[in-house]
């Protein structure tokens, strides 16, 4: 005897009819490539040749004569009072300056000599220890005193440490003053008495001669 199938209840028919049919997997979406946008470049700048030549001439004048476009300003006096380290490589050495730049640097040096150096280290004038109030006319004195001033600014700066001034006295001041005020120094023909002003520039040696010393120069 064959078993008859079980009758389907109304609830089972409702669940089968309500179940959604299986769906096929969705195809991957296509990503549109970005549109090529043309960049809008600015129009080229066109300069008038005459204006360009004028600007180039002004720039050339500034670089060739920087002192002419830099007048003294009130901040310079304040800057002079503060210790400034010497620029690397001796870029600010006075013998490398010319024109107004040299005049301005010499004026600062004169003020330092009169306000700092001479009141504190200017010993009495005598025959073995001469001096010259017209020292700015002595090239050697200008060079030595300017180097001494640059070293002074460097060694009184904060980063020089507590021994900075002592090093300046030992390594720079003593040697410079001994050379300048020696009886064989640049002031040898100048003041040897405090009440007898005198000034004379000693002639330098002749220029280098590359001729054979055994053959006299016909033009000499």
Characteristic key phrases:
single chain; 220 residues; mainly alpha; elongated; DUF4913 domain-containing protein; DUF4913
Task: Give an overview of the whole structure.
This protein is mostly helical and 220 residues long. It has a domain of 112 residues. Helices cover 41% and strands 0% of the residues. The chain is built from six helices and no strands. Helix 4 crosses helix 5 and helix 5 packs antiparallel against helix 6. The longest helix has 23 residues. The protein is elongated, with a radius of gyration of 44 Å. The N and C termini lie far apart (155 Å). Pfam families: DUF4913. It comes from Streptomyces triticirhizae. This is DUF4913 domain-containing protein.
């Amino acid at each position: 005897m064959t078993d008859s199938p079980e009758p389907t209840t109304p609830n089972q028919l409702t669940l089968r009819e309500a179940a959604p049919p299986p769906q096929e997997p969705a195809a991957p979406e296509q990503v549109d490539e970005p549109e090529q946008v043309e960049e809008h470049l600015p129009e080229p700048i066109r300069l008038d040749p005459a204006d360009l030549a004028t600007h180039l001439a002004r720039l050339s004048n500034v670089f060739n004569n920087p002192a002419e476009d830099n007048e003294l300003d009130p901040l310079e006096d304040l800057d002079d009072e503060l210790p400034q380290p010497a620029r690397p490589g001796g870029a600010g050495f006075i013998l490398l300056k010319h024109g107004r730049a040299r005049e301005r640097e010499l004026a600062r040096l004169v003020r330092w000599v009169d306000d700092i150096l001479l009141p504190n280290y200017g010993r009495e004038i005598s025959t073995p220890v001469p001096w010259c109030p017209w020292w700015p006319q002595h090239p050697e004195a200008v060079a030595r005193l300017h180097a001494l001033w640059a070293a002074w600014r460097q060694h009184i700066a904060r980063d020089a440490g507590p021994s900075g001034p002592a090093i300046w006295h030992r390594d720079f001041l003593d040697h410079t003053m001994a050379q300048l005020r020696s009886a064989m120094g640049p002031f040898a023909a100048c003041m040897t008495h405090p009440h007898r002003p005198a000034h004379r520039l000693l002639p330098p040696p002749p220029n280098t001669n590359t001729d054979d010393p055994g053959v006299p120069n016909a033009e000499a």
